[in-house]
Each structure stands twice: as C-alpha cells, then as structure tokens.
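Lab notes, practical 5.
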Amino acid sequence: MSSVTETVTEMIQPILDQKGFYLVDLEYVKEGSSWYLRIYIDKPTGIDIEECALVNQIVSEKLDADYPDLIPNAYFLEVSSPGAERPLKTEADLQRAQGQYVHLSLYQKLAGQKVFEGTLTDLTEQELTLTYRVKTRVQTLTIPRKNIAAIRLAIEF
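Output from the prediction step:
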C-alpha cells in the first residue's frame, strides 16, 4: 500500500466511523495522464449520492488543510458506492455478506462446477456454506476458502 493510500485510510477512518459508514476500498491510481484518489464507502442500508458528496467535501477539506503536500500532483477525488455487485475482499466484507446472494468462482471444480451463485449461509475461518438452486432443487455446498478464486455480491434474478 502506498503512503498516500495508507495516510488517507488512517485520516478518513474516524470520519467514516462517526458517520456510520465503512471503507470498502481506496485506491490512488494514474489513468492516462490523470491521477485519481478513489474512495469506496458503504453502510448496512446502502450509501446514497448525498452521503458520497458529504464525505467528498470533508475529505477534500481535510486533505487541503492537514496534508497539503501528501499528493504532489493534481488529482481527482472520487467518493462513491462500491456498487451492487462489488467484490468481497476482506473478512469484514464476508461477514456483512452473510445471508446475501453472491457469485463465486473456484480454482478447482467442486460438485462438477467452478462457478456458483447462491446465498452465503454460513462462514467459518476455513470454509463457507452456500445455498443454491439447481433447477427446482435447493442444494447446500460447503466450500473450502482456499479454493475460492473470487467472490462478489450478485443480483438474484
């Protein structure tokens, strides 16, 4: 993690805690000739545009006042929701996703498949349990965490 992302993470965490938000991800990247500081936030009931704008304003003012030399070049500050089908990257993400519909990809086939969508029903240190449908039958599958290549929230149709 770069010093910019570490410093900004430490700086905004108390702000987010106070507002009842949590940090999903933070990145400082160059795209083309422009630099972007992107902050993805959420809360249990979902985040809205006004809340993103509020955090943007607070972070912008705090960076300008307390850390004027942290980012030496011009950049765009973006604060947004992580999206409806966001990746689940941390243990806290997985804990919050219990009971929700997820999409996961595996490194090796399990029950003849490498891709599953279903409800994350249980979570331990070593594995997770997914309840999913095969046509009209509901099935439950316990998946070792070490076999999970990627997991994200999904929209159930």
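Observations recorded by the TA: Residues 91-153 form a domain with the SH3 type barrels. fold (CATH 2.30.30.180). The beta strands are 22-31, 34-42, 75-80, 101-110, 113-123, 127-134, 137-144, 148-153.
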